[in-house]
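Good morning N.,

You mentioned wanting to compare the apo and holo forms, so I went ahead and generated the holo version with adenosine-5'-triphosphate. This is what I fed in:
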Amino acid sequence: MFLKKVTLLRENIASYEHYPFSIPSIKTLHELDFRSNVLFFVGENGSGKSTLLEAIADKCEFNTAGGGRNNHYEVHASESALGEYIRLSWLPKITNGFFLRAESFYHFASHIDQVDTKGFKDYGGRSLHKQSHGESFLSLFLHRFKGKAIYLLDEPEAALSPAKQLAFLKVLHDLVSKGDSQFIIATHSPILLGYPNATILSFDNGCIEEIQYEATDHYQITKYFLQHREKFLADLLMNE
Ligand SMILES: Nc1ncnc2c1ncn2[C@@H]1O[C@H](COP(=O)(O)OP(=O)(O)OP(=O)(O)O)[C@@H](O)[C@H]1O
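and this is what came out, ligand included:
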């Protein structure tokens, strides 16, 4: 593990009226201690997961549009509003890693098309634009991710089928157990969240707090849906 703690520099914040400090989970944040190599951010849409993940990416000096330290390209409105208001505590400090932002991955692929000189060796041997969305994500995980590094992933499941989400968990497991990598992942996937011994932080209820897998909405709603699909849909769709 490399990144041990994130501290919100509250003394530098003049007001909590506006974004990003108005987000309830950020407004109440003081510091977060990280205790495992795999950490998930969960919570309702709009609860602040991407805002914090992007701020961590910014402080890691990764491209906040997606990429590592050496991926210099720009995407409109991808800068972090929170980055300059947090402090990261490392032991030891590392600089290797990647910020995956599913929504702007297309721009990252175009950037790689422009700068790659190694026959796309780090991406499975083909332009990311010539791979399907899911194939391109897995190529990145399989070929570019390696060694002592920190990976910040915002909804990596966005492009992955359930079977490929399981394949991703195997890649993640190999990187964590053999390569000493650290992952922080914002996700809505009940499959990814099931990774053993991960820490899950919930951004719901106006704060950021640890939650057990079985207590997440993602687990409970998916489980109930699969076990009671007809009743669930009848209640949802038929009743006024
Ligand atoms: N650039 C911005 N300016 C103003 N408000 C913003 C900006 N970006 C995000 N927000 C607001 O901040 C809140 C948190 O957004 P954020 O993207 O961090 O949520 P999230 O938990 O990642 O959601 P999701 O699960 O939908 O990805 C939302 O209410 C959103 O509308």
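The CA atoms of residues 16 and 22 lie 5 Å apart.

Happy to go through it together on a call whenever suits you.

Best,
F.
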